[in-house]
Amino acid sequence: MREQEAHEARLQDHPHIAADVLRMEHVAMALNERSSLYGTDSLYRRLTEDGRNHPVLSAFEESLDQAPYAIYEVRRIYYAARTPDCRTHHGRSCRSPKWWCRQPRTEQCRADHPAGDFEPWCPGHRECRGPAKKGPPGGRCGPCGKATVAPPSN
User: Fold this and answer.
1) What is the pLDDT of residues 112-149, one digit of tens each?
2) CA-based radius of gyration for the chain
3) What distance in Å separates the CA atoms of residue 124 and residue 12, rounded to the nearest whole number?
């Protein structure tokens, strides 16, 4: 049995897992059409080549019908200001942001967690976090009211 046939057989044995994989590919391709699971070929196209995968495709269609969705128009994205600590330790481009890249460290934090050879290590306790420079007041989303920054774990 070819690898593709063996893979399709596993998908047929577990149609709801296959539906989750198809939905993941569907969402990825909605955001970027070149992000299919198989390079230039998609799993959906492979499964629709013949009629053997009807239960998998039915489970996929059912999962799409049940999934919540919304359409947004993004006009402009504002990134939070980077702190001097972030610029010092991460340079021009911050590829692995820490909490202190967007929120300044307090003097107490600087005393308790001095910067090592690479970057400051601090878990981000409440007493270490200074006031954010940008973003909604109180760290909450305007439309929904949810916290935009996870509360620090003490």
Assistant:
1) 877 765 566 777 777 888 877 655 444 444 445 455 44
2) 23
3) 46
Task: Determine the Cα–Cα distance for residues 53 and 36; give it in Å rounded to an integer.
Answer: 19
- Only one residue has tokens 């774990």, namely 153
Tally Cβ neighbours within 10 Å of residue 80: 15
3-state SS record for the chain: CCHHHHHHHHHHHCHHHHHHHHHHHHHHHHHCCCCECEECECHHHHHCCCHHHHHHHHHHHHHHHHCCCCCCCCCCCCCCCCCHHHHHHHCCCCCCCCHHHCCCECHHHHHHCCECCCCECCCCCHHHECCCCCCCHHHECCCCCCECCCCCCC
Listed in sequence order, the residues at least 6 apart from 60 whose beta carbon sits closer than 8 Å to its beta carbon are 18, 19, 22, 23, 26, 44
Q: Residue ranges per domain, the chain?
A: 3-66, 84-139
Contact criterion met (CB below 8 Å) for 39 and 45:
no
pTM: 0.47
